[in-house]
Each structure stands twice: as C-alpha cells, then as structure tokens.
C-alpha cells in the first residue's frame, strides 16, 4: 500500500489545508499555498468530499431536469470537480501528489452516523463508502479498502493524515460558515487534530456567511481588501469577529494567479463565476476556531 503522504523532512514546517469541496481551498487559501510553496515548505490539500451532491451542477452538466438525475450524473460532477482541483493546484505550484481525496459525502457530512455498522447512504450517488475517480480515495490508496460513511471513519482518516504530515499549521473552514458541510468539516478536523495530538496552529477561513453577504465587495479586485457591510441593520459577515484577526496581504501577481486558479474550476465558473471571483482581493483573511453557533440553512454546494 502507498504511504499516507510523501516524505516530510521537517516536522512542523508544512501545512495541511482541508477543503470540504473542490474549490474551497483555492477560494480561501490560494495565497497561503503560493507563499508556502515559494518558501520551500510542503503544502498538502485534503478534499473531504468530491463535491458530488451538487444537483444544480449535475443538471447543467447532464442537460437533465433535477428530478431526472441519476447517480452517474452526480459522479460526472465529482469527476469534473476533481479535474478542476488538479488544474488549480498546478497553477498554484502544487503537484498531484500534494492532493488527497477522502471521498466522503457532499451534503452529508453532518448526516453521517457517529459510528456503528450502518453507514450513511448518499441519496445522490448511492455511495455508502469513500471512493475515487481521477484519483483513488485516501483509504483505498493507503489501506486497500474504502472507509464507510461514518463520522468516526472521517475523524480516523484525518487524524492519520495529520500524524503523517506533521504540519505546523492546519487550515479549515469556519464554524460560522453557512454551509452545513463546511461547519461539520471544521468539527471533524478539530476532533481529528485532538486525536492526533496536534500541537500546531489552526486557522479557519470563511466561504459562505450565514447572511449571504460574504465575500464583499463583489467581483475580483486585486487592489481592494475584504470588507464588512451593513445588511438589514446588521453587520455582514455575521458570526465572525471583524476586523479579522489575521489579514495576510497578497501581491497583485499573487491575486492574478489566484484568479487563474479559480477559473480552472470551469463548472463552478458557469454556475457562480462572479461570486467565486469575489475571493480575489488584496489579502486573505483567517480566524481561530471558536464554539459553533446556531445551525443555519444550507446553501447550494460550491
């Protein structure tokens, strides 16, 4: 069987970025990836799902009505999103071996049983265990068999990855994110980090705000920082401290490279191009993990 990850020469020198879906890593952490690679440090991106539960994308790709979609249509979405992940990674300076696909259910991370013998069955793909398409899923690659759709399996897989990579920093979506998968991803990664005895730093990033106002201002603007705005008398983005405690400047060149990487996700660009390009700013912003708030309504997968 293959090792969990490539050789890590200096424990604590690399980073692990956890993306609930392919594209989240580029939207939230492209600058971090580029700076890490240029500094000669190791960066790995871990995709927790294949982004295979996106009905709007499956309908667009297949030309079918949503009610007529079949499992193969959702798997086609997963394949295309994985392809986008490889293309974006190459633009940012990563190689295929720097990417890990876990293959857990998109839209179902919070629905997986904590443990037991009856795994969650994904209504879109009909899968009940991890799988790979363009690349094998992590469990099959390293242990010769997939992991069942159980929360305990996801925690165990990620804890093993953390122990293998020995990173100094972990990045994951924030508990305040409006997407259920993003919130649950944070919880799973934090539990796995504790199980692995991780002693480094954990940073969180935001993709969907509960109020729908993030990111602002809309549209790609390499010369502008992220901003907070008033929506209905309340500050947006909701649920996170503002200003962010960790603002990391990006050069115009880095921002332009990030834009090219985002555009490598062709399907997402067709569905929400202006929205995802809005993550191209003069900075990237991060928070530290906090206690989760009320569970918001889940937006469509991006």
Q: Can you offer a commentary on this structure?
A:
With 302 residues, the chain is α/β, with parallel strands linked by helices. The chain has a single domain, classed as Rossmann fold. 35% of the residues lie in helices and 14% in strands. Strands 3-2-1-4-5 form a five-stranded parallel sheet, sandwiched between helices. Strands 6-7 form a two-stranded antiparallel sheet. A hairpin with a 2-residue loop joins strand 6 and strand 7. Helix 1 crosses helix 7, helix 2 packs across helix 3 and helix 3 packs antiparallel against helix 7. The radius of gyration is 18 Å and the shape is globular. The C terminus is likely disordered.
Topology:
Blueprint: E1 15-19, H1 24-38, E2 43-49, H2 55-62, H3 71-92, E3 99-104, H4 138-143, H5 151-165, E4 169-173, H6 180-195, E5 201-205, E6 229-231, E7 234-236, E8 246-249, H7 252-263, H8 266-277, E9 283-286
Parallel strand pairs: 1-2, 1-4, 2-3, 4-5
Antiparallel strand pairs: 6-7, 8-9
The name CATH uses for the topology is: Rossmann fold
By CATH, the superfamily comes out as: LmbE-like
What is the percentage of strand-forming residues? 5-15%
Low-confidence parts, pLDDT < 50 over ≥5 residues?
295-300
CATH arch. level architecture: 3-Layer(aba) Sandwich
Q: N-to-C SSE series? A: EHEHHEHHEHEEEEHHE
Tally of helical runs = 8
Overall 3D form? globular
Provide the spatial order of strands within the biggest beta sheet. Answer: 3-2-1-4-5
**For the CA atoms, what is the radius of gyration?**
18 Å
How far apart the termini lie comes to 33 Å
Top CATH class = Alpha Beta
Main beta-sheet strand count, sense and barrel state: 5 strands, parallel
Structural class: alpha/beta
The assembly state of the depicted protein chains is single chain
Task: Kindly report the average pLDDT value.
Answer: 94
Q: What's the number of domains?
A: 1
């Amino acid at each position: 069987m293959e090792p969990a990850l490539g050789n890590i020469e200096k424990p604590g020198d690399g980073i692990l970025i956890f993306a609930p879906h392919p594209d989240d890593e580029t939207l939230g952490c492209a600058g971090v990836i580029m700076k890490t690679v240029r500094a000669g440090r190791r960066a790995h991106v871990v995709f927790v799902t294949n982004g295979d539960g996106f009905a709007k994308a499956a309908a667009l790709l297949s030309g079918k009505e949503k009610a007529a979609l079949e499992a193969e249509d959702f798997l086609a979405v997963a394949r295309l999103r994985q392809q986008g992940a490889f293309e974006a990674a190459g633009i940012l300076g990563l190689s295929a071996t720097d990417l890990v696909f876990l293959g857990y259910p998109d839209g179902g991370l919070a629905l997986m049983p904590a443990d037991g013998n009856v795994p969650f069955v994904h209504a879109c793909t009909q899968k009940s265990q991890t799988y790979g398409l363009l690349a094998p899923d992590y469990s099959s690659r390293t242990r010769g068999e997939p992991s069942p759709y159980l929360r305990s399996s996801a925690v165990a897989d990620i804890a093993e990855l953390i122990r293998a990579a020995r990173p100094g920093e972990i990045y994951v979506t924030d508990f305040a994110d409006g997407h259920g998968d993003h919130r649950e991803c944070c919880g799973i990664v934090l539990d796995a980090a504790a199980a692995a005895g991780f002693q480094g730093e954990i940073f969180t990033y935001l993709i969907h705000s509960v109020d729908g106002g993030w990111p602002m201002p809309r549209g790609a603007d390499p010369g502008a920082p992220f901003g907070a705005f008033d929506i209905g008398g309340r500050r947006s983005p909701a649920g996170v401290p503002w200003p962010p405690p960790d603002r990391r400047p990006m050069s115009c060149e880095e921002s332009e490279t990030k834009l090219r990487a985002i555009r490598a996700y062709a399907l997402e660009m067709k569905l929400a191009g202006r929205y995802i390009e809005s993550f191209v700013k003069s900075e990237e912003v991060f928070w530290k993990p906090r206690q989760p708030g009320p569970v918001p309504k889940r937006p469509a997968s991006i």
